[in-house]
Amino acid sequence: MTVLLPGTSARxxxxxxxxxxxxxxxxxxxxxSLQRFLPGLFGLLLLAQAAPGQTIVVSRxxxxxxxxxxxxxxxxxxxxxxxxxxxxRGQADGEGSFRFEFSPYQSDDSLxxxxxxxxxxxxxxxxxxxxxxxxxxxxxxxxISLTDTPGIALKNVTPGGLASLANLQPGxxxxxxxxxxxxxxxxxxxTVEVFSAGVSIGVVNQTLIIIK
Length: 212
What we know:
5-stranded mixed sheet; 4-stranded antiparallel sheet
């Protein structure tokens, strides 16, 4: 299944497509990450009538360009209407398959990044990420990372790798500071990504110009 959060590009994983027992309907309740299925995906409420004796399969869920949601699946009832957040967004074909895109769509989790835009080579730099849980359930198993592209702009970043965060209750916010040194002259992209139980739930980017 493909799961993309704001600011990411296409990323394929080898997990099994999601399937739901045969019943008149299947329901994904509000929330913000795959780890919190059930309840839900990206604060998503998706309702579709199942074909008799079958299971509905969501094979792809992708958030592109920050606010464009794409859903694909199969085994819905022939020509069934697909509802997202209670709004009709698409229709299954005669064989019960569905694929549609719409925008704007907003993730339940808010992630922002604050830090310098221009520094001199050798300067110490600090970037502060803020994560807010705007969903209805706690975010658990949280980890956060900071990287730079082309990968040579920053040195001695602390914390390095994946740093663990405390669980985040609904409505609560958490800040994580990253300290490092501007090591090379470059126009770099600073990327902070947050994971919940190994599943990416947020990405934010910022440009950093390092001069001599």
